[in-house]
Amino acid sequence: MDIPLHSFPTTRISSHGADKNFPLTTDVYKLDRPYSPPWMKVVSRAKEQFLATGCALITNFLREEILNELRRETLRFEKKTCSSKIPFSPYPPYIPSIDQTLPQDHPEKHIGQRSNRFVPYDELPQRSLLRELYEWDKMTIFVNACLGCKQITPLESSQSACVLSLQAEGESMDWHFDGHQYTVTLLIQAPLMGGEFEYVPFIRSPGAPNFSGIKAVLDGNVQKVIRMPFSSGDLVIFEGHNSLHRTTATRGPIWRQVALLSYVDNTSLSY
Ligand SMILES: O=C(O)CCC(=O)C(=O)O
Ligand SMILES: [Fe+2]
């Protein structure tokens, strides 16, 4: 690990004008007061939704002024990134299998495409609001509880622990599974149209790779596909290792900007 996690102050930097004990998130959720009644209320709703659908939506998560500042922080990266169409297979490390024994139409041989732009964790400024949120111990406590207390920790990766994903007009990210278990997505800026997050909850599980079900989705079957409607400032807690997911192409001049906060639980993944 190149960057020590949790090494940044957990209280807000005064230049952002926020209350010291109320760093980043909307007052109503009381993230700074774990196990208080309002905190318990949002956690139990999120936990229920996560267990039922593989995804929990927490609306208006960020305070308005924090969201605006995060937008400004992210906007700077729009000019620094460039798009390219990258062949993208559904399984990490996102390279199609060359196994000769597999049929050509096997999902492990599928070649999709992605054209979004990633800003790696180590390129975020040291005094980034996003770093501050990701490295805030109470954020981890909150996400952990929403997932049903799985003992998660932030991913130890200087590159992909917490990244920005940007989509200009027409850019998308095809069907895939994440290499780590849990992703918390913060929608910093919704595009005018498109840029939808779609997923099939728990389409596979340990011991049940469900290649036929996955192939059906890759072939365009939308029967089990759920579209998560979320707006700027909303937070989505998601299991991306066993739930096939994608983001569709954005439309219009406003870029889609999301922050992706990655977490792993203490048991190592075997696949
Ligand atoms: O942009 C999103 O909402 C999800 C992106 C994603 O799935 C990923 O980067 O692995
Ligand atoms: Fe993903």
Could you characterize the architecture of this molecule?
This protein is an alpha+beta fold and 271 residues long. It has five helices and 15 strands. The protein has helices spanning 37-53, 64-80, 129-134, 137-146, 211-218; strands spanning 55-58, 86-88, 112-114, 117-119, 152-154, 162-167, 173-176, 182-189, 193-194, 197-200, 226-228, 235-239, 244-247, 250-251, 256-265. Strands 1, 4, 5, 6, 8, 12 and 15 form a seven-stranded antiparallel β-sheet that branches. Strands 7-13-10-11 form a four-stranded antiparallel β-sheet, with no helix packed on it. Helix 1 crosses helix 4 (137-146). Bound molecules: 2-oxoglutaric acid and fe (ii) ion. 2-oxoglutaric acid is lined by residues 165, 173, 178, 185, 197, 245, 247, 258, 260.
Name the CATH architecture: Sandwich
- Broad CATH class: Mainly Beta
Q: The CATH topology, please?
A: Jelly Rolls
Name of the CATH homologous superfamily: q2cbj1_9rhob like domain
Number of strand elements = 15
Q: Which ligands occur here?
A: 2-oxoglutaric acid, fe (ii) ion
The total domain count is 1
What's the story with the biggest beta sheet?
7 strands, antiparallel
Helix content: 10-25%
Our estimate of the beta-strand percent is: 15-25%
SSE succession: HEHEEEHHEEEEEEHEEEEE
**Shape by Cα distribution:** globular
- Radius of gyration, whole Å: 18 Å
How far apart the termini lie comes to: 22 Å
Structural class: alpha+beta
Please give the count of helices.
5
Q: Mean pLDDT across all residues, rounded?
A: 89
Low-confidence parts? 1-22
